[in-house]
Amino acid sequence: RKEVEQDPGPFNVPEGATVAFNCTYSNSASQSFFWYRQDCRKEPKLLMSVYSSGNEDGRFTAQLNRASQYISLLIRDSKLSDSATYLCVAYGGSQGNLIFGKGTKLSVKP
Amino acid sequence: EPEVTQTPSHQVTQMGQEVILRCVPISNHLYFYWYRQILGQKVEFLVSFYNNEISEKSEIFDDQFSVERPDGSNFTLKIRSTKLEDSAMYFCASSEGSLTNEKLFFGSGTQLSVL
Predict the structure, then answer these.
(1) Nearest CA to B45 among B8, B77, B1?
(2) Is there a contact between B104 and A42 if contact means CB atoms under 8 Å apart?
(3) CB neighbours of B40 closer than 8 A, spacing ≥ 6?
(4) pLDDT tens by residue, B8-62
(5) Does A12 touch chain B (CB under 8 A)?
(6) What is the CA radius of gyration of chain B?
(7) Is A60 on the interface with B (CB under 8 A)?
(8) Which of A19, A41, B43, B76 is the residue whose CA sits 20 to 30 A from B108?
(9) Are B38 and B105 contacting, i.e. CB atoms less than 8 angstroms apart?
(10) Within 13 Å, how many C-alpha atoms sit on residue A28's CB side?
């Protein structure tokens, strides 16, 4: 069974804090990985893809460790607007079949 | 930015009734998908559709479910005889190409409540 596991949180952090999320995936054949953001009762929105070499987009940094089968997301200088649920997602190559984690809830407080 | 649109945003139905959820994918996209999310649970893949046929489906997508692209713009999900456990948010999505290379765009969802 293909699974993506995440710490559900919630992570409650003050504005300006750095916060890190991890997730693990069970299917070693997974080819691509993503972080999505989901606001309450809204659709998931792609935050960033995750590459083996690691990638950065502004305050967000994603890392992939294939040997350990885990993925991380680092958010620096967190903003109130970063409050959301962050979904770790693996794509195993089967057409359209993204495997979603349950998500980690982040709450940024003033 | 182009978007996937879904209608209705909320659908309430009685158990055993048929429902059709409607989606208009982004116009130049070739791959279409349905996902669902039961309240408090993971987003789950239901089905993918390409070149007018199902390319993959999950074990959730049983004989009660069907998809159709009745014209050049709409993509529908039909549930023949709804059950209480079908209550969920249903997301339509589309991509320009295969997900190996392309981004997935989600619609804002249809909240289905089966009473």
Answers:
(1) B77
(2) no
(3) none
(4) 999 999 999 999 999 999 999 999 999 999 999 999 999 999 999 999 999 999 9
(5) no
(6) 13
(7) no
(8) A19
(9) no
(10) 2
